[in-house]
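Dear V.,

Thank you for sending over the compound details. I've combined the ligand you provided, flavin mononucleotide, with the protein sequence from our construct and run the structure prediction for the complex. I'm sharing the raw inputs here so there's no ambiguity about protonation or stereochemistry in the SMILES, which I know was a concern on your side last time.
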Amino acid sequence: MNPTLDLIHNHKSIRKFTGQPIAPEQLDAIFQAAQAASSSSFLQAGSVIRVTDQAKRAKLVELTGGQPWVGSAAEFLVWCADFHRHQQVAPEAKLGYTEQLLIGAIDTALMAENALVAAESLGLGGVFIGGIRNHPDEVVKLLGLPRQVIPLFGMCLGHPDQAPSLRPRLPQALVVHENSYQQELDRALLAKYDEQVRRYYQTRPGSAKVMTWSEQVAATLKKESRPHIRAFLESQGFIQK
Ligand SMILES: Cc1cc2nc3c(=O)[nH]c(=O)nc-3n(C[C@H](O)[C@H](O)[C@H](O)COP(=O)(O)O)c2cc1C
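Below is the predicted structure of the protein with flavin mononucleotide bound, written out as structure tokens.
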């Protein structure tokens, strides 16, 4: 259709890298793209920590559940919702409202996705790392994050050393609703998608498995999901008790 859409449609997470560093001007362009994202009330409520210290990197591999690509990527970035900056700009600011948590998370996610798309446009690849929220207290200590700053996710970036296949997305008709929410799930369409995902997993090089999307959803959502997060958000001043 056009090169921007081709790039976006072709997104695949990359977890294996060549070891070649990212050129400083490319990194600069990636951060500039991140900062160009839209921002709620122009608050620009996101920050990013570039982790270049190898000892900190090694610790982050451990804290994110032993994901080797956290250590082997040319760059590892920790994306944070940040109201610490605002507190310094406006000491009278009223913080700790749940809405601000959403603003920080939304602004930062928009920045990070812009960064990944920018990286992909330069022939680089990467992957988000939600594992950064496994032990957020430890991440706060390791990276010296003050109150009003929380790590949302990490991101590996580097030169790809793999060419994974596209992971099929839900049929548009299950995602895009017109005028009102279509509450009744189209089960026939879902079954087709489940089959597509099952085939994707079966033929995926390196890590074949047998699973449909529905089975994956059930397996993921039957477990507790980082129940420590509420107390962590309180301790960083992001929500009130
Ligand atoms: C917020 C977020 C957190 C993620 N966390 C991880 C992670 O910790 N480790 C990992 O290998 N992939 C992680 N991923 C990547 C997803 O698994 C991946 O985007 C998804 O399976 C779709 O595959 P694709 O990106 O190749 O299209 C994360 C993605 C997002 C958006």
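A first observation: Strands lie at 46-50, 75-82, 125-129, 149-158.

Warm regards,
I. M.
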